[in-house]
Structure formats: structure tokens, C-alpha cells
Write a structure and sequence with these properties.
CATH topology of one domain: TIM Barrel
Largest sheet: 9 strands, mixed
Helix content: 25-40%
Strand content: 15-25%
Number of strands: 21
CATH superfamily of one domain: Metal-dependent hydrolases
Radius of gyration: 23 Å
Mean pLDDT: 93
Distance between the termini: 40 Å
Structural class: alpha/beta
Length: about 575
């Protein structure tokens, strides 16, 4: 197929300026000729986020709202020439981990520079509220001291107020973490929750939702959330559902037991009577590739029975997690100190070795495991290198290397696992139920957020979909790609005034070059901004202008209002 520029924009004749396509409203009021607007975006090919074909039009903005789409006769205090460029809604990252990084650098450089205007954090069962006194002290002594961040809240109201008082470069949404809440009430041991403890957790979910959280998340490969059974999570989900929230889950397994994990996720949401978002859906490991189709069949059947289910995925063949994740959760119970103790126990170590080696065999071999972060200076040389490469030089047994590194770092080691394939990405991303998400935080090419080796998705997720998978490989047309990043996640969230371009909606907008947009970050050199993102507006304010950050911090904390879905 000839994926020329014309085909890239879908083989559709572009309507002339002023046409109404796919719900784009035009307000051609003659008295507006002398109007002076805050911002005018002129001559762009407008993709409205609904999946409809592009239309050439101007967009006028007053304050934080779009007030006119069509031929704009007035002038603008700020005018953006978008001739030959795409203008679309700002990207909504439905699965993000910017929670703490926004406190370090509120500009969110790696996200805003790829067109993200709204972040949905509190993912994988871990949120920055509610905090016990012990967890608050842990954050203060760790993250707070390292980055000079003032962490003083214990609930969502305090978190949201802190972000607003500081100022942020994009919009922020948080979900409530089931793992955080279980740790608050039950602790970090592998024990069932009592009826009284379940009631206490439900009260915390109710408080979180009343303070503006948008739903409940779980991270069932991580402790302590993994120690909850389906019924316990469903009890919490019912509370979130009462606020029209949704349940986003990092499932209990994404490889050998993927089908069972999807079954559990569907069953949990069915019991809770809550909408389900399956996070970063994947089939990791060569032997599990055929499970993607099986799972989609299960999901579609559940939807046919009346359930509300959607999914998200990042466009990479590798996932990011911690090195502890090579071990089943039973070995991680009790926190880092207990885990490290087991690594040194002759009674437990053989079983831990078997489990970790089997996990690596599922991925392929030790070349599929890359070290991405450590805390101790003497181990920094391992960062960005694969375990197979490291032990090839030393002659050490790979499991022994991993064990010793985890002990030295008190269990805190980041890793990337190369478990997926391009074919698997294609089968997932092209499904109409799947939207695009980064599963990453914010980073920067300089300053404190440049000191780690993050997954390249921190920098490149959305431009990679537009450039590699849309323009170069033709997996879908451009309006479909944009819909997966804008209108579709907005619909999941119930964001009625974002995710689309129409008169009266919030001016969260991106201008990009369809011929050049692409990611630059890779696993060896992740700190590289994407190219082709020319302008980004958040709440009507220009944050990226000509590819450069203006320093503006117009983002808002978006608190969920009861019943908004």
C-alpha cells in the first residue's frame, strides 16, 4: 500500500475551510470580523478526536475555551500558523505514572513535548493518597530528600491542593490505589482482610472518590494489593461505581496465566457492577502469543452481556517493572526487608531460583532482562545493560548476579523485560477497544529527572504511534490513531469537555507535522524528546511553541464530580 501523505490522512477530500465534519461546529457570525481572540490557530487540518476525517479550518480561542471553528476573520494576541499541519485534541494518557515526578519538575517535559495534556495517575494499585504516617515518612525520607520535594499531605485533598499551589504544566487526574488502601488498613503481609478491615477500606475508597478521585486501580502483580482476592476488590469497586467511577487493573498475570487473569478481571468488575479498564494489555512470552485472540473473544462476549470494558497499551515490545517482579508475590510478602531476607535463606532460595529462572525462560533468556535503575554508585555501570551482557564479562551465574544485586540494593532495582513482539503489538493496538497509554512518568533531558534510565515510553509513546505505526506501517488511519489518544480515553473517563474539538470545549490542543512526527527515545538512549510536535495548548495557554517549552504552567487538577461519567 502506498502510504503517501494523502493516504495517511485517509483517502478523503479535505473539506474547505468552514465545513462541518464529524461534529465540528462552525460559527460564522459576521459581527465577529473585528473580534480579537486570545489565540488563533490558522489553516490546520483539524482532526476532531471522534474518528472523523480531517477538515481545514481555523480555530479561535478565548480564555480556556474554543469559541469558533471555521474562517476566523479577527486577529489573535497569539497566532499559530498550522498550514499543512494537523490540529487535534490534546492527548489523554489514560495510564500514567507522573504522580511524584510532577512535584520534582511541574513542566512534565517528556510528556507535554509529545502532546500529552492530561495525565491519569494513581495506577497499578498505587496512589499518593491515602498515606499512613509510616508511608508519609518513607516518602519524605526517600523521594522528598532526594529531590527536595515537600511531601506533607495524607489524603487526596492535600495532594491536589499541593499540585495546584505549585502549578503544573498539564492536567492531572488520579485514581485511588487498591494496594495503597490495603497497605493502609491491612498492612503488607499475605493475610485475608477481616470484615471490619474491608469496611475500613471501603470507607477510604468513599473518601477518595468524594475528594475527586476518578476510580479504583489495582496492581495484582505487586504487593500488598496482590494479597486481596476477587471478592475483596469487588467490595471496593462497588463503592467507586457509586460515584460513576471505573476500575483499572494491572492484572494478576500477563504471561502464562493471562487468560485466567482476564477471567478474574471480568468477574471482579461484574460483581462490582463497575466499568473495567484493562491496563497495558499484553501477552508476554513467545509461548503466550495466541492468548491475545482468546482474551479478546472473552472480553467481547462479556461486552455482549452488558459489561463496559476497554483496554490500553503502549507501543513497545518491552515492559518496565522492578527486578523483584521476576519472583512470585509470595516471596515478596512483608516488604523489601523480608524479600531480601528470603534471598539469603538456604531454605527458600532454591524455590526462588526456580521461579525466577522459569520467568526468564518464558521471556526467552537473560538477554530479555535489562537493568534500568539502581541506588548505589558502585552499581551504576549495570544501568542500561542486559543481564546476559553483564555476566558474559564476569562469568557469573545470571541468577546469582541478580540475587546479589537485589541484596545490595535492598530489593530496589528497576528492570525492562523484552517479552512482546511487533506482531503482538499489531494485534493489540489495532483492536477498536484498545486506546493508547504510556504507562510512564515524566522525565527531562536535564535536571533531576534526567538521572535515571527510564523506559522510552516516557518520551515517545504518542509520537511513536503516529509516526511508526500509523504513517510508516499503516496499522490504522490518522483519525483513528488520534481517536485512540483523545476521544476514546475521554469517553472512558467521562470528560465531556475534553478529548474532542468543538465550540465550547476546553482548548487542550496539539499541532503536529504529520510528515515528521516520530519518537526519538530508545532503550539505550531514552532521554530524547520526540520530534514533529510543534505546538501544545493546555486550557487555552500555549505551553509548547515552535517545539520549545514556554515555561507556562496552566494545568489543572481535574477532580471527579459525583455522577460524571
Amino acid at each position: 500500500m502506498d502510504w503517501s501523505r494523502r493516504n495517511f490522512l485517509r483517502r478523503t477530500s479535505l473539506a474547505g475551510a468552514g465545513a462541518a465534519v464529524g461534529g465540528l461546529s462552525t460559527m460564522l457570525d459576521g459581527c465577529a470580523i473585528a473580534q480579537r481572540y486570545d489565540v488563533i490557530i490558522r489553516g490546520g487540518q483539524v482532526i476532531d478526536g471522534t474518528g472523523a476525517a480531517p477538515v481545514v479550518a481555523d480555530i479561535a480561542i478565548e480564555g480556556d475555551r474554543i469559541v469558533l471553528i471555521g474562517p476566523v476573520q479577527g486577529s489573535g494576541r497569539n497566532t499559530i500558523d498550522a498550514t499543512g499541519k494537523i490540529v487535534c485534541p490534546g492527548f489523554i494518557d489514560i495510564h500514567s505514572h507522573t504522580d511524584l515526578s510532577l512535584l520534582v519538575d511541574p513542566r512534565a517535559e517528556s510528556k507535554i513535548r509529545q502532546g500529552v495534556t492530561t495525565e491519569v495517575a494513581g495506577q497499578d494499585g498505587s496512589s499518593l493518597a491515602p498515606l499512613t504516617d509510616a508511608r508519609l515518612r518513607s516518602l519524605q525520607n526517600g523521594y522528598g530528600r532526594r529531590y527536595g520535594v515537600d511531601i506533607g499531605w495524607t489524603d487526596f485533598t492535600g495532594l491536589f491542593n499541593t499540585l495546584e499551589q505549585q502549578g503544573i504544566g498539564l492536567n492531572f487526574i488520579s485514581l485511588a490505589g487498591q494496594g495503597t488502601i490495603r497497605g493502609y488498613v491491612v498492612g503488607y503481609e499475605n493475610v485475608p482482610a477481616s470484615a471490619r478491615q474491608v469496611d475500613a477500606m471501603k470507607d477510604l475508597v468513599d473518601q477518595a472518590m468524594s475528594e475527586g478521585a476518578w476510580g479504583l486501580t489495582s496492581g495484582l502483580e505487586y504487593t500488598p494489593g496482590s494479597f486481596a482476592d476477587e471478592d475483596e476488590i469487588a467490595e471496593l469497586g462497588r463503592v467507586a461505581a457509586g460515584y460513576s467511577g471505573f476500575y483499572a487493573t494491572h492484572m494478576r498475570n500477563e504471561d502464562d496465566f493471562l487468560v485466567e487473569a482476564v477471567t478474574e478481571a471480568i468477574s471482579t468488575a461484574r460483581k462490582a457492577e463497575i466499568a473495567l479498564q484493562i491496563a497495558h494489555f499484553k501477552a508476554s512470552g513467545r509461548r503466550n502469543r495466541d492468548k491475545v485472540a482468546v482474551c479478546f473473544d472473552m472480553i467481547e462476549q462479556a461486552i455482549g452481556e452488558g459489561m463496559d470494558i476497554t483496554l490500553d497499551r503502549y507501543p513497545y515490545i518491552a515492559y518496565a517493572t522492578t527486578l523483584q517482579n521476576l519472583f512470585p508475590t509470595r516471596f515478596r510478602a512483608g516488604g523489601a526487608e523480608a524479600f531480601v531476607g528470603r534471598l539469603q535463606s538456604p531454605d527458600v532460595l532454591p524455590a526462588m531460583r526456580r521461579a525466577a529462572v522459569d520467568k526468564v525462560d518464558m521471556l526467552g533468556d537473560w538477554s530479555a532482562v535489562m537493568i534500568t535503575s539502581v541506588g548505589r554508585a558502585e552499581n551504576q555501570d549495570y544501568v542500561g545493560r542486559r543481564v546476559s551482557e553483564i555476566v558474559a564479562r564476569s562469568g557469573q551465574d545470571p541468577f546469582e548476579f541478580v540475587r546479589e544485586l537485589l541484596i545490595a540494593e535492598n530489593g530496589s532495582v528497576g528492570m525492562v523485560g523484552f517479552g512482546m513482539s511487533e506482531e503482538e503489538i499489531t494485534s493489540v493496538l489495532t483492536h477498536p477497544l484498545v486506546m493508547v497509554a504510556s504507562d510512564g512518568g515524566a522525565a527531562a533531558v536535564s535536571g533531576p529527572l534526567s538521572e535515571t534510565t527510564p523506559h522510552p515510553r516516557y518520551y515517545g509513546t504518542f509520537p511513536r504511534v503516529l509516526g511508526k505505526y500509523c504513517r510508516e506501517e499503516g496499522l490504522f488511519d490518522l483519525p483513528t490513531a488520534v481517536h485512540k489518544m483523545t476521544g476514546q480515553p475521554a469517553q472512558r473517563l467521562g470528560l465531556a469537555d475534553r478529548g474532542r474539538i468543538d465550540v465550547g470545549l476546553v482548548a487542550d490542543l496539539v499541532v503536529f507535522d504529520p510528515d515528521t512526527v516520530i519518537d526519538q527515545a530508545d532503550f539505550m538512549n531514552p532521554h530524547q524528546y520526540a520530534q514533529g510536535i510543534e505546538s501544545v495548548l493546555v486550557n487555552g495557554a500555549v505551553v509548547i511553541d515552535g517545539g520549545e517549552h514556554t515555561g507556562a504552567l496552566p494545568g489543572k487538577v481535574l477532580r471527579k464530580q459525583a455522577g460524571s461519567a
